[in-house]
Design brief:
The chain has one domain. The protein has a two-stranded antiparallel ribbon with strand order 1-2. It contains 10 helices and 2 strands. It is mostly helical and 267 residues long.
């Protein structure tokens, strides 16, 4: 499967958009990347079940780079809650490994596609409603944050997203300021991505009929193009987030997610 010019352009546009959104909203971009990478792989002869799995794994791999780029921009503004990162990260690593090494490898791609579509709908609803928490609610203790991290990592591994679709609403629900929640979610994307990618590579070693230039379930050409483009635009998204009210934008993004979810489920 060669990298023809049209494919490079498609992947570059995807990288530019998802990188910007990663910095702006604290999401890893997986909810946008997975449907489009699935379509690109399917159009090039990859079986539908395998295309979904490879899209999820490749999407997750790009988050390693977008997370680094966006968290640097957020950290310069002092927005990252590193105390929360330290408590959530261990659970995230364990949950990610369980998801990517175990459940992901066992489930059919069609089941993962249905789960992805339903979960994106739920995430879009969360963004749209934007419910306000009780003013007295706080982040749980160390044990509660470890458990929350495990849940975030596990679900992220199944849908190929950086966890922001869970961690940002979770932190906001616990009265963490929205800009701090977005910045902290960007930092959490790194351990989520590293742990899950390790699982995807290991579990994909025995898979047959992978396209050329694959590393386990990861499609390296897409990873290279998307990672470069998203690395460049993620800091721009992060800077933009600190200069505007992102709540109206989250509602617009939720509408796009509903459309993508419907398309994925119908396929």
């Amino acid at each position: 499967m060669t990298l023809e010019p049209l494919l490079i352009i498609e992947l570059a546009l995807l990288g530019v958009g998802t990188g910007f959104l990663a910095g702006l909203l604290g999401i890893g971009g997986g909810m946008l990347m997975v449907p489009f990478i699935t379509i690109i792989l399917s159009q090039r002869g990859v079986a539908p079940d395998l295309a979904v799995k490879m899209a999820i794994a490749t999407s997750m791999a790009t988050i390693i780079f977008t997370s680094i780029a966006s968290v640097r921009a957020h950290h310069k503004r002092g927005a990252v809650r590193w105390d929360i990162v330290k408590r959530l990260a261990p659970g995230i690593v364990v949950g990610s490994m369980v998801g990517s090494l175990g459940v992901f490898a066992l489930l059919k791609g069609s089941y993962l596609a249905i789960f992805f579509g339903l979960f994106v709908s739920l995430s879009a609803t969360q963004m749209f409603l934007d419910k306000k928490p009780k003013p007295t609610r706080q982040m749980p203790g160390t044990g509660g944050q470890l458990a929350a991290g495990g849940f975030i990592g596990f679900l992220s591994g199944l849908v190929g997203a950086g966890g922001g679709f869970i961690s940002v609403p979770f932190m906001s629900w616990c009265n963490v300021a929205i800009h701090n929640a977005v910045a902290t979610s960007a930092a959490l994307g790194f351990p989520i991505a590293v742990a899950n990618v390790a699982g995807y590579v290991i579990s994909g070693q025995s898979v047959q009929n992978l396209p050329p230039a694959s590393f386990g379930y990861i499609w390296l050409p897409a990873l290279a193009v998307i990672a470069v483009c998203s690395f460049l635009t993620a800091p721009l998204g992060a800077r933009t987030a600190h200069g505007m009210d992102i709540r109206p934008l989250k509602k617009a993004f939720a509408t796009v997610l509903y459309a993508l979810s419907a398309y994925f489920l119908l396929r």
